[in-house]
Amino acid sequence: MTVNDFSLPKTTSEQIQMKFEKNSLLLLLFGNHDSHLTKIEQSLDVIISSRGNEVSISGSSNAIFHARNVLEDLYEQLEKGRTIDLADVDASIKMHGQKISLVNKISDKENIRAHKRTIRPRSPNQINYMHALRQTDLTFALGPAGTGKTYLAVAVAVSLFVGGEVDRIILSRPAVEAGERLGFLPGDIKDKVDPYFRPLYDALYDMLPPEQVSRRIETGEIEIAPLAFMRGRTLSNAFVILDEAQNTTPMQMKMFVTRLGEYSRMAITGDLSQVDLPNGINSGLTEAVKVLDGVDHTKIIRFKDSDVVRNPLVTRIVRAYEAYEAKGNNEKK
Predict the structure, then answer these.
(1) C-alpha dist (Å) from residue 196 to 21, 89, 179, 189, 271
(2) Which of the residue ranges 16-20, 112-116, 226-230 would you say has the lowest mean pLDDT?
């Protein structure tokens, strides 16, 4: 791949031309109906045109530099045999905005080939998070919805389980309703708690075929249980995930973190801006990150709105709520 710089008349923007060696990769690089190029154009305010294996980029010098690095990064990923989609394009745009290359930062371990697709980190914080999940006994993940806190934890858990590094996966969360009363649910205990665990089931079904999920739940290799069921247990040789941990009380959180046994990993995820506990009850997650910050073999990852990997509108929604809440707090002072 070669890059040539040349100037247009001063009345127009600058322009560079790139040449890619492998024509077979260009359709994948450009995306269906050039959707990847359109995403780069809209995000970076550049104009991209292609002819054969040549691509020209015009715009401001900074925008051109950014777009060129994104295309180089995505092309290198394809050369390594990886697949890319719009989320990968968005991730590369964000990473290169921070001068970080996806190709150089993401190791093979962080590319998890799951049942439905390949799962990989898409921001610097997600890279650090996946490293921590593999290497640290206790990892806290804090931040807004859509940053991959739970999804990546389940992905790493399944990867370690399939690889024989842990014997079982334990998924738990407090059964606290999100601002509404659901009443008495019919059925046995599984029927009653399943609605609370649907996000965890959804993640599992992305990682493993449905029949494997069902079979491993029946054998106990995958266990999905309310937080209250964790009392008195020692969780060894397992990958343990506590989701929605902002809705634990301090007593519940202390109980849970002290369940960690030998040869286990524990991930605790939550969004401190979405606490659903009754008024006057402090969040156990808030207390835990204060108490355990700096403790050996413990890692705290704090995600930001820039780490959101859902629909770009979600990022704008998160920022709008943060601005609204900050304004309200300032008015109270």
Answers:
(1) 50, 33, 13, 12, 16
(2) 112-116
Tokens read off for 80: 């390594």
Q: What CA–CA distance (Å, rounded) separates 15 from 3?
A: 11
Q: Which amino acid type is present at position 333? A: K
C-alpha–C-alpha distance, residues 320 and 312, integer Å: 13
* Nearest residue to 170 via CA among 259, 303, 275, 297: 259
What mean pLDDT is reported for the chain? 84
CA quadruple 80, 83, 89, 91: dihedral, nearest 10: -80
Beta-ladder partners of 240? 170, 266
DSSP 247: G
DSSP-derived secondary structure letter, 7: P
CB 278 within 8 A of CB 116: no
- List Cβ neighbours of 233 (8 Å cut-off, separation of 6 or more): 259
pTM flag (> 0.70) = yes
Segment 191-212 shows an average pLDDT of 83
Name which residue leads in pLDDT, 204 or 105.
204
Pairing relationship of beta strands 168-173 and 54-59 according to DSSP bridges: unpaired
Angle between helices 198-207 and 149-162 (to 10 degrees): 50
How many Å apart are CA 148 and CA 292, to the nearest integer? 22
C-alpha separations of 131 from 106, 113, 163, 224, 330 in Å: 10, 17, 16, 24, 37
Buried b or exposed e, range 114-137, using 16+ CB within 10 angstroms = beeeebbbbbbbbbbbbbbbeebe
Secondary structure, 3-state, 205-232: HHHCCHHHHHHHHHHCCEEEEEHHHHCC
- CA dist., res. 80 & res. 121, Å (int): 16
Nearest to 80 by CA among 49, 98, 101: 101
Instruction: Output b/e per residue, 239-266; b: 16+ Cβ within 10 A.
Output: bbbbbbbbbbbbebbebbbebbeeebbb
